[in-house]
């Protein structure tokens, strides 16, 4: 199936009411695994339902390649059953009185697929989801993970060109969620289907998606591959939303707090020829917790941004340590895989490479260090 394109799509659930989706321009590439990511109420499920044909846009158009599915201006609407898409709901929506096999073959039965072909397709879908051995059981006899696999197998059996998944893993425990993430990634790799996946879980988006569309209040904030979204967030909202702990963000300038003034001095001077980056449009600086490191007196930090901080708490997680730090009245986090001897109340020296700093203007939009201070970016090391 060609790309799915939403053009200037808006959706209000009542005349004159607030927009659940606001002037959305979004292209979902053919064969991609695209995650619609954002907090509750950001418009991601509404967007999915409009693609499926379960909701009508208030304005705008939706098309697949050259085929128009929705156009408010031209009065075009293709009903859900004619869109060639499969929808998997959050609550599985299995028929409790039908066996696994009969649940999976339901769509094929509606399509009047011949019996032999129906059995072949059902067996193939059950095998792909690794649940052929429970084909004769009923949903009540299955675990949550198995029920989710049945729901996915039912969609795969009818071989839709697009799979639309509305937070399908949210009802599973942590272990099953991890297992199903790997399963969905495998299904995408094997089938090449276009998958549109709604989630508020950044880990799901980062681990499965080929493209992530971050939304806020019905507005698209950024569309990019997951690592690009993480390493080059388009604005402060995206920067703060992705990451656990979240990116450390603080105002930068001559009138900012202690940490912000230190960052401003480093970016504006740093021993190199440069101007006032605050005047150049840098209002906020961000640094990921894992990009900070604790250094000792022997370690050279000449090209890095370095500062002293007070340890507030040391939080071991097993595989890593999360350190809560205070610089005057600003709290920030550092994540390290190296055990540290510091305890609450200790003063430590912290450093971050220039390349690890994220710069944002007063509106929250990203500014690249190479554009603001090319000579400083040239000295940065990873």
From TrEMBL:
Keywords associated with the record: ATP-binding, Cell membrane, Membrane, Nucleotide-binding, Translocase, Transport
Annotated Pfam families: ABC_tran (PF00005), TOBE_2 (PF08402)
Residue ranges annotated for the ABC transporter domain, each copy included: 4-242
Gene3D superfamilies to which the protein is assigned, alphabetical: 2.40.50.100, Nucleic acid-binding proteins (2.40.50.140), P-loop containing nucleotide triphosphate hydrolases (3.40.50.300)
An example Gene Ontology molecular-function term: ATP binding
Signal peptide location: none
Domain of life: Bacteria
InterPro entries membership: AAA+_ATPase (IPR003593), ABC_transporter-like_ATP-bd (IPR003439), ABC_transporter-like_CS (IPR017871), ABC_transpr_MalK/UgpC-like (IPR047641), Mo/tungstate-bd_C_term_dom (IPR008995), NA-bd_OB-fold (IPR012340), P-loop_NTPase (IPR027417), Transp-assoc_OB_typ2 (IPR013611)
PROSITE patterns: ABC_TRANSPORTER_1, ABC_TRANSPORTER_2
PANTHER family, per database record: MALTODEXTRIN IMPORT ATP-BINDING PROTEIN MSMX (PTHR43875), TREHALOSE IMPORT ATP-BINDING PROTEIN SUGC (PTHR43875:SF15)
Identification of the protein by name: ABC transporter ATP-binding protein
